[in-house]
Design a protein that fits this description.
By secondary structure, this protein is of the alpha+beta class. The strands form four sheets. Strands 8-9-13-10-11 form a five-stranded mixed β-sheet, with no helix packed on it. It has a three-stranded antiparallel β-sheet with strand order 3-4-5. The protein has a three-stranded antiparallel β-sheet with strand order 6-7-12. It has two domains: 127 residues, no CATH class; 75 residues, Maltose phosphorylase, domain 3 (Sandwich).
Length: 207
């Protein structure tokens, strides 16, 4: 992971490269990847799928600071905060780009937007790795990897057609523990058991 930060994270242009340097004039043929222009997609640019998987790995290690830094870096909105960034990025800031160019003169330029694979993986990263919401059969776990400065967050979760669980998550336990209470009743487990009972439940979580 240290090598990722040292060689592959381009903070100036807000991208996480798949590899560096790009394949260009080498005598060896690494495969179709060399068919891309240097710095585009897998060939030395940000391949967003892989960038998301890297963030998932940091989240699995509970490296909250790095996860949030990299997530903020790849968030397309943050590539369009001023006119200079807009002219560099050149694509829609409200959808995920499947790749971001990594070699001059187009460093930081987005490509192949509206690609659902990148958006889907980013949604999974945000929901499961950062907010920590994960369901296994009828068990629901919340194991967040959120910044220390967050006070918490709320989630409305539907089960079936008419059952709702309203989660209020407080970022209080700095030791990584999770405490649940459902409708005012404290639980000993680190998960809640979901029931499709047509009732709206209030769930309080300290993490």
């Amino acid at each position: 992971m240290a090598s990722l930060n040292k060689y592959l994270v381009d903070r100036k242009n807000g991208l996480i490269k798949l590899l560096t340097p790009a394949f260009d004039k080498s005598n060896l043929y690494p495969g179709y990847i060399k068919g891309y222009v240097p710095g585009v997609r897998e060939n030395g640019g940000q391949y967003t799928h892989a960038a998301v998987w890297a963030m998932m790995a940091f989240a699995a290690m509970k490296d909250r600071k790095t996860v949030w830094e990299l997530f903020s870096m790849t968030n397309p909105v943050n590539h369009a905060l001023n006119n200079t960034e807009v002219q560099k990025y050149k694509v829609e800031p409200y959808v995920m780009a499947a790749d971001v160019y990594g070699v001059a003169p187009h460093q930081g330029r987005g490509g192949w937007t509206w690609y659902t694979g990148s958006a889907g993986w980013t949604y999974q990263l945000a929901l499961e790795s950062i907010l920590g919401l994960k369901r296994e059969a009828d068990k629901l776990f919340i194991r967040p990897c959120i910044p220390d400065e967050w006070e918490g967050f709320e989630i409305n979760y539907r089960v079936g057609e008419n059952t709702f669980y309203h989660f209020t998550v407080e970022n209080k336990q700095k030791d990584g523990s999770v405490k649940f209470s459902v409708d005012g009743r404290e639980l000993n487990d680190d998960f809640i058991t979901l029931a499709d009972d047509g009732v709206t439940h209030q769930v309080h979580v300290e993490v």
